[in-house]
Each structure stands twice: as C-alpha cells, then as structure tokens.
Design goal:
homodimer; mainly alpha; 10 helices; 76% helix; DNA-binding
Amino acid sequence: MSVRPTRPALRERYDRRQERVISQAAKVFAKRGYDQTTMQELAASMDLATGALYHYFSGKEELLTAICDQLMEPLLEQATEVLRAGQDPEAQLRALVRLWVCHVVEHRDHMLVFQQERHLLESGERWRKVRASRKAFERLAAEALERARPRGDGHLALLALLGMVNHTAQWYRPRGELTPEAIADGYVDLVLG
Amino acid sequence: MSVRPTRPALRERYDRRQERVISQAAKVFAKRGYDQTTMQELAASMDLATGALYHYFSGKEELLTAICDQLMEPLLEQATEVLRAGQDPEAQLRALVRLWVCHVVEHRDHMLVFQQERHLLESGERWRKVRASRKAFERLAAEALERARPRGDGHLALLALLGMVNHTAQWYRPRGELTPEAIADGYVDLVLG
DNA sequence: TCGAAGTCCGAATGATTGTTCGGTAAAGTG
DNA sequence: CACTTTACCGAACAATCATTCGGACTTCGA
C-alpha cells in the first residue's frame, strides 16, 4: 500500500512509474470523468491489474490530488522563477502568460480533471495544499498584471485573463494553427488594450 | 415513471414542480458533484422520497440533460431575439454579451454542472441536442463579434471571450461589487481593444 | 360523491466497484 | 548463491446506490 522502496536502485524506477501512472490517470479521467472511471478500467489502460495501483497510491482520491499537484507545483515554481528575473513589467507579464499557456497546453488532461473536480476544492483538509498553490499562483498573476497595467481596474482584467487561459485547455489541439506562444501574446494584447 | 398528466389542471402543477426539481438538482450537483450526489440526498434536499424523483425523470442522467436544456434553450432563444433587433454591430455585441453574462450569473449552478460534466458531451446520442445548442450559440457569438470587430483575427478573440464569460460562473457572487452589466461591458471593452 | 388519475412513499433489490489480501515471480544485496 | 525486498496479480469482499414497485393517500372531473 503505497510504500516507497528503501533501496536506492529501485526508488528511481518507482518514482518514474508513479509519475507515469499519474499522467495516464489524468488522461483517462479527462476523457471519461473521474467518478465514471473504474479502477479496473484505469489499471487496464496501463496494462496493470487493479491491485497494482495500490502500490503507488493509497486510493483513488490520492490519485486525484497527485494529478493536481503534478499540475500546480511545477507551474508555481517556474512562475516564481520568471518573476524573479526582473525585466520590465510588460515583459514579465508576457513571459508569465507564455509560460502559463504552455503549461496548460502541455497538461491539458490535468487541467480538465482539475476543472471537472473543482467542487472538491471548496472544502476538505485533503485539498489544502492544492488550494494554496492555486491561490499563490493567482496572486503572482495579479501582481504581474497590476504592474504592467497600472491604470484602470485590474480586478476584472485579472478574472478575464484567468478565464481565457484556463479555457484554453478546452479547445486547444496540438495540430491547430495557433502556437501556445501566439495564444499567450494574443491574450496579453487583449488585456493590455 | 415520468408520465405527464393528461388532465390540464394537473399538468401545470407537474411542469412547475419538474422545473423546481431541475433547479434544485442543479444547485446540489454544483456543490457536491453529479456523481457524488446520491438520489437519496437529492430527494432529501427537496423534502421528497427517492421514488418521487422518478415521477419527473426516468433516471439520473435525464435529470442532467434537463439541467443543460434549462440552461441552453432560453439563452439561445433570447440571443436570437437580440440579434434580430438589428442595431449597429457594436451595440448588438454589447447587448449579446450583457444577456449572456446575466444568464450565466442567474444560472450559475447550471453552468457549473455543465462544465463539470463537459466530457459527457463529447459523445453519445443523448447529448446531441445540448451539443447543437452550444454550437449554435457559439456561432451567433462569433458572427456578432466578427461584425463588431472587422479587422484582426477574430478567432482568438472569440475563444477568449468564451473563456471569460464561462469562467464568470466560477467567481461571481451576488453580493460582489460588480454588476453583471458592468462585467459584460468590461469584457466587450477588452475584446474590442 | 364516486371512480379514476395522479402523487408520493420508502424498503427491498440487484448491480457495480473501491479496496483488500494471500500468493507468485522477479530483482537487488551481501 | 541465499534471502530480503519489491512488483504485481486477480479473485473475493463489503459497501454503496440507482432504480423498482406495491400500496396509501390526495385531487380532479363528471
């Protein structure tokens, strides 16, 4: 039941496989829905028996939080990095939104699952970390936007930007005409007028 | 099992109660999630026994499609109305977005349920009508936007607008500072530059 | 007022499904 | 090579929950 190996040689493999399970789960959950996906389906989709999943996770819900963590943590980290670079405000905002859109696009399945199960976030100790990450990221975005757009009410602009970027997960297709960078630039253009 | 009364005097009451059940279901589903809500909980939340729900719907999934219909149909109808009025392009767009935001805000629960269960839309005969309504509305919005914003690539602007407006359901609170009209105008300002 | 139609009850049911667990094979370690 | 840890299997279990259904009560229409 979800016990990380002691032996160093196995630990790496364990971690790698665990991450693969998370990604695959995100893919299946995104397509079929979290509740409508049975553990058996999920296991079958990665050529495992149902019991095997419990080597990597204590249960279905932990799998869900893992998906959210795998989504939010690298984003928050990279965003902090970008804003530390200290370019001029508009360049910072553009860099942040580019990073963000790229992340959404690369983690489309994670995003869709996250949005589907948004109602779980509203309460429950288990979700504290995810809630905190989301809030922290939104604060970074708010500050970057405020600096790049000093006049006017930034509040609605921020909400609009959040809407655009998050919504991107719903329509973006890899073979589409727009690159993630072009999308991000388009969004920033809208928001900066 | 979901048989509409023959007698005129009862038909009205039946329809009224059915609508109330739909709205209440939207509320509970939005808060707890569709799959995580049991029929017993749902019935209890409206002081009914579980069996009573099957007077109005043949099953849980029909309740879900009813929520989507109750959301999409009046919107599509009113939108068509607004665009038929034939003002100048920008006024048309503003009117449409106002209508749209108001609708989202008044049917917040419906919207949240709709978004949660978006993955069901992707396939299944049962969802054809809902899919068609959504597509029809998006087409209206696209045309209105195109007319009001003749130069530039309207494609990304449309997607951005869809994102903003739909996302509104996630943060809007009745006691907030922004009125639906102010929100709508803010969105249009962003999109028209 | 009478019979039919409608409304709702709520316990029982049948199917589904998350999770457990005893066992087997494989791989690391000394 | 022993032997311990790790990886995985997959049938069985226990719990949950959508749906059914026979009946009690109410309202309508004539």
